[in-house]
Fold these 2 entries.
Entry 1:
Amino acid sequence: MKKWILLCISSLFVAVTAPAAEQFEPDRWSKGLHLLAGGGVNSSVYSASEERIDGGLGLNIKTDLLYVLDSNWALEWSANVKFNQVRSYLLWDTLLTIGVRRQVPSISPWDLGAPYARFFIGRAPTVLFLNGGQVDQISDPNVSRLHFDGPVAGIGWGALKKNSKGQIWFTELSFSVQALEQEESVRMDGDVPVVVSSMKMDDNSNIYSFTWTIGILAF
Amino acid sequence: MRSWFKLFISMVLVVLGPQVGKAQQGDALPEEAPVQERSALEYTLNFSTVYAAQWAVYLVTQEDTIRDHGSWDNFFHYPFHPGFDKDSFDYNLFKHAWSGQYYYLFYRYRGYSEVEAFTWTFLSSLAFEFAVETYTEKPSIQDIYQTPIYGTLVGMGFERLSAYFRSSESIFVRALGVVLNPFTLLPQYDLAAMPVIKDETVGVSVLWRY
């Protein structure tokens, strides 16, 4: 709990006191490295051949490390960490992706700022914490969580805006699809996680997510 | 095997320890310091200081894991097999962000700009994943991303929070500012570190002249 509070305070302080972007403009990106960070909510649905579970609303933390190629195009390396409650279990998803983003001034239905679009692909390690509970297919009571792995792809649309203090803010909607291809049961041996069993998944398991994020340009 | 670790740490700390703090005595605080040109030697010394600290903290905090799971075979074999780790978010989000923010604050204390400090935090994080922790485990793809990114964000927050607290009238609030960014103490003092190594323990004796 203390760590959460410290991280929240720290993040809030970064947001409130984020440095004014001297060269980066919402509609004219400056070349080089930039870091965007924000938080928001997501809605996720798990779907397999014989099952469909609504993950409901969850929280997410999103960071994008950009390498801006010119004033319109950037390469990005991103992580979208999502938390959802699936039945009584906590689902922790990390979408680690690489992608491209481009300014799209023609798509600007509201005055939200300078719009951009992004496309991303990558891998998504996903963890289901059993919280002491049991799932049908796991017989070992010492298994504390299930780890899944598979590819992810998605698209996003967002807008950047500069406020009166010169800080750059962004808001973004994104949609992603991830496939769960591998499942591993993990138990803890002290601080060390031990994989007890591993299997390939062939039941067409996917997670579909909508994410809304708001955040700042840290540098 | 551990004696080799200890010997290595001893050598690095003895060589580099006195450098920490001396080079910037009397300089302005990091947030006020102008971005400076640096020589290759200074980059190397700063990076090596972090690398030595990483080894020291790793040896002290992961003693049991090193004994049970560590080997030189891992150390040379694992760097070629990075993968997704099986840790909980307690490790991946909090502990790695926590250590990453110290890398970031150290480089800021040495006068690096925010982007430069991030870049070197990233490199130090890579060094830990590929040339320290490989003694016991494979490089983690999540940690390669999350340690420098979250560490930088937390470090940026703590640096500003610390500067705000240290401008307070209250000595307690100022002390809290120093706790959040302990490197703010260093520019004002001459600091040297000497390892203390016994059969069952390893530690550091710090000499602080003011």
Entry 2:
Amino acid sequence: MSGVTIDDVRRVAELANLELTADEEPRMQRDLNSILGHIAELNELNTSDVPPMAQVGEVLEGVEAFLHGETLRADAVRPSVDRAKVMAAAPETDGRFFKVPKVIER
Amino acid sequence: MASEELTGLTQGLTIDAARAAVASGETTAVALAEQHYSRISTGDEQINSYLSLSRDRALAQAAKIDGMAARGEALPPLAGVPLGIKDVLTMQGTPATAGSMILKGYQPPYDATSVARLEAAGAVLLGKLNCDEFAMGSSNENSAYGPVRNPRALDRVPGGSSGGSAAAVAADFAVASLGTDTGGSIRQPAAFCGVVGVLPTYGRVSRYGLIAFASSLDRVGPFTKNVKDAATMLEVLAGQDAMDATSSAQPVGSYVAALEKPVEGLRIGVPEEYFGEGLDPEIRAAIEKVLDGLKAAGCVIKKVSLPHTKYAVPTYYVIATAEASSNLSRFDGIRFGLRDAEAKSLSALYRKTRDAGFGSEVKRRILLGTYALSAGYYDAYYKKAQQVRTLLTRDFLAAFHDVDVLVAPVTPTPAFKLGEKTDDPIKMYLEDIYSVAASLAGICGVSVPCGETGEKLPIGVQVLARHFDEATMLRVAKAVEDGQASAK
């Protein structure tokens, strides 16, 4: 794996909807390279036969709490948070919807 | 009453003592809350542990408890006990900033389950506690609202990310508090500030209302002044919640009752990888003393190996940042918090809001996580880390075939100075070397004070136990605490 370039930093920032200043770009490049260098140590391990683990429950065979479906709640209608309270926290709203700038630009 | 007299009453006050004083009529819940607010107003300017105070809600709850006490009603387990809440948990009507500018002014419309449970158990919630931005940090220096200082040594960090939660308890600005731990954020600040901090098993305490950092790792747990208080808090907090699908149906243990059982015959594992190069000699000596004490109490001490330990930090920083990059995409200036009002297009609105709202550590982790998940790198980084996470977890499961708990240092060094590690992210990340493996494996742990260094800095020892075996974990923690008391 080759190092992270400034272009990589810009591409990833765009994917993440982040805007970096001219000062931040080289700093992030330096930090990402140093962190990824440390992460490269994982390649010392042969993991070809090891299943990936996304959640703790996957490795706990026989722990009843994590059997499939056990933690699903009943499929019942229940009130959600009051709309007025949610809208009160929004930066811009007409009381019913969130307002945003024009989405289609051309 | 003179103010010194008022604040003196909060010193070293435990849950048991506070509740008993309210129940007996020796004091009132309102008076206890006021004493804490008074102490906060004189002392917290220096420490910076609270970000906001929820005075109206606290005093209304305190008056309710006082009414119950006056009528001679049975009081719940936390009746009148003043607590603080880490500012990544939601409390209706109180700001929730997550230590970030992007949530400045946000007032969540609902209570986190853990918050609601504490209040239903009679607790008086004093306010919200400072932390690293979105719980990302090991020193509380990443808060947008300024760092927290360690009450035990003002030139030192309190640890992170739950720095405010640990400092508030250490400084008697709360009897106990709630924190969160993703890679060590409860245990490490507990060790740095000389208080007890519990990392419950993943799924033991509901995450509903916790502003998510890394959902497969995030946990909510208590900070307290002693082990018994931690057991009391955990009994209230633990249990399944319909609002968190990862919360477990495993029966909740009688944690307080478990403390009465002797530790004789328990097998204590000492993981050799946690005692290698880089461990401060004074911390090593303190942990060895703890092990001698447990041996004297009848425990069997066994050396064990967790061979993949050195891979825990890199594994953690792939998985946690990948999950964070996804979780933090919800902060976009549309539904809550900050918005860049000048932006003319939706994409500019996202970018400019996030640029203004996020601090540099949060940006760094979002970039790293996005990179690890991006096309062409997913298998090399994210999948690889998930596979090593399996190996790290297997290490613990294998060790727990031979021993009942593990005893190890929490941190390689005692609390470091403010500004000491802010320039080098790797240096800061390695601070988590003894804490992240337990986070990745989902097992439970507790940090217990076990002495201090020559410079009077607190030292913590962690007791790690099997998934859902908080009862044994706390039992051993109590024996460690008792050993400290008898050594004094």
